[in-house]
Task: structure prediction
Amino acid sequence: MAHADAETHTHVNTPCSPQDIDAFLAEAEALAIRKGQRLTKIRRKVLRLLLESNEPSKAYDLLANLDGEGSAKPPTVYRALDFLQEVGLAHKIESLNAYVACGHTSHKHSAVFLICEECGGAEELHAVTTTEALKAETEAAGFRMRHAVIEARGICRECAS
Result:
């Protein structure tokens, strides 16, 4: 996957990325407590790494950047990522087998990602109409959808210009 120039071409999950990482981590901590959970040291570090990343992050890249946090092994990172997804602080982009942070602690939503095949960036859309249509169609089929991740591949606006 190509890497974007962080100075001029960053758009990993832009609409959902909080501007103040430390303030967002405090908000994430409060969210975990409200849900009867804890934002442990490893979970916090994994979330911080996702928030600081300029592109979707793979679990093994996160593991390599934990800087010796505890006795972190792959299952530790995957458990942290599962937790972050469960409480709505991260999304998994299935086709990339990678993760991005989501700054919407106030609601759960289905994710619609635009994935650039040139720079490897991923941007989340708030495709409310698309999500509502998908929910209506799945309900009409007798299926109760819990969540969905929709991925569209192509060329982002920066790479296209």
Strands lie at 90-93, 98-101, 111-116, 122-125, 149-154.
